[in-house]
Design a protein that fits this description.
Layout (H helix, E strand, L loop, with lengths): L2 E6 L4 H6 L3 H7 L2 E7 L5 H8 L2 E4 L8 H18 L3 E5 L1 H13 L4 E6 L9 H17 L2 E4 L2 H9 L31 H11 L5 E6 L8 H12 L4 E6 L11 H9 L3 E4 L5 H6 L3 E4 L8 H8 L4 E4 L4 H4 L7 E3 L4 H13 L1 H18 L2 H21 L1
Parallel strand pairs: 1-2, 1-4, 2-3, 4-5, 5-6, 7-8, 7-10, 8-9, 10-11, 11-12
Length: 387
């Protein structure tokens, strides 16, 4: 009889982007996989792509105590009904509610993956509250999988969980990178031409940034640095990702610059970001916090030079002047200097990008990550059976 896994995320976007192809892989390897998240426009695409059942629990990404309590009981009811062998959660809210519900329902194997911690940039009461909720999540989990070694060190160093409960899968990452998809050789010429026409003719250097357009992704520093570099370079800044008006929104000044500067192009979202990587010269990731950034893996697979901030997650992948270029987080002068170097030393940037590509092929192939997760599932189930 097939073992059942319930995978829980706060929103369906996580299944579509962060965990793409993973539920389907587990189903193909003998598991009955049930996906759970809030509703969203991505839900139908996720069901079609993963070919697994999806249940709706209306979780929110904000602090909403009454709604959270309702969702806890809904999750517990689902778990009681399906009697899963494993409950595996992702994202902070889904982790807290999912691990509490699974523990209270008596599930033996309870896994929570940590792919980022908002508390890392918070202060005061909110930081203490988020630290407490993470501690509760890890207490309710039987094993915790930080998706990078630096994240593991942070969790252990802050005594949120003991080392015996923490495990990094492979070399890090929640899902690896699809090397068949993120390959310059495998792009469709017709789609590439559509993207080129969308961006208009341009014979300068194009800088690409992919992610949510919010303050803690470093977008405001990037815009200011771009304006300075634009004075002496022929540049275009391509921003791919949605604005979030309710969660850490950009300032009115930044929004005005994006909308009025003709050299800044904003694409609200793309399911095929590899085509924008193919027409860019430098990938920049100035984020203030990360778990293990998939976009750096994707850019590296596309052989783009990477400029990124010196934060946990980024530095698990990038070594300065070997596989990328690193500047201090929130340091606009450092970002300016590093981007300027990449623009003026194109051959060196290309050499660094080549080294990153080799690392990614060796360490972060998606198929290898999926196999590692599958092996860990089976090992945890065997251990539980012995107990």
């Amino acid at each position: 009889m097939a073992k059942t896994i319930i995978r829980i995320t706060t929103v369906p976007m996580a299944f579509k982007v962060l965990l793409a192809a993973q539920p389907k892989f587990m189903r193909e390897h003998g598991f009955n996989v049930i996906m759970v998240s809030a509703d969203g426009i991505e839900r139908n695409d996720v069901i079609e792509a993963e070919q697994c059942e999806h249940l709706i629990v209306p979780m929110t990404r904000k602090i909403t105590p009454l709604q959270d309590l309702k969702c806890f009981f809904q999750l517990r009811k689902i778990i009681k009904k399906y009697k899963p062998d494993i409950v595996h959660s992702h994202t902070p809210k889904a982790g807290l509610l999912g691990m509490m519900a699974a523990a209270s329902a008596g599930v033996k194997v309870r896994i929570h993956t940590v792919a980022g911690l908002p508390l890392m940039i918070e202060t005061g009461f909110k930081r203490r509250l988020l630290m407490f909720t993470e501690w509760v999540t890890y207490r309710c989990a039987t094993t915790v999988w930080p998706n990078s070694n630096s994240m593991k060190d942070f969790i252990a160093g802050n005594r949120l969980a003991g080392n015996e409960k923490l495990k990094v899968i492979g070399n890090g990452s929640s899902n690896g990178v699809n090397l068949e998809r993120y390959s310059k050789e495998n792009l469709l010429p017709q789609k590439l031409q559509v993207v080129r026409e969308q961006l208009t003719d341009f014979d300068g250097s194009r800088i690409l940034c992919v992610g949510r357009m919010v303050k803690d992704k470093g977008i405001e520093e990037l815009i200011r640095v771009f304006l300075e570099l634009q004075k002496t370079n022929k540049l275009q800044l391509l921003l791919v990702g949605p604005f979030e008006p309710t969660l850490d929104p950009l300032s009115a000044d930044s929004m005005a610059i994006i909308s009025t500067n003709k050299s800044i192009i904003h694409i609200n979202w793309s399911d095929e970001v590899e085509y924008y990587m193919a027409v860019s010269d430098i990938f920049v990731h100035p984020s203030h916090r990360e778990g293990f950034p998939n976009v750096i893996l994707q850019a590296g697979a596309m052989q783009l030079p990477v400029v990124c901030s010196n934060i946990p997650g980024n530095t698990d992948i990038i070594q300065h002047d070997k596989t990328g270029l690193i500047f201090e987080v929130k340091d606009e002068t450092g970002l300016h200097t590093t981007l300027k170097f990449a623009l003026e030393n194109k051959q060196r940037a290309k050499e660094i990008a080549s080294e990153l590509y080799k690392e990614i092929k060796l360490r972060y192939d998606r198929e290898r990550i999926h196999e590692e997760i599958l092996n860990n599932y089976n090992s945890l189930l065997k251990t539980d059976e012995i107990k």
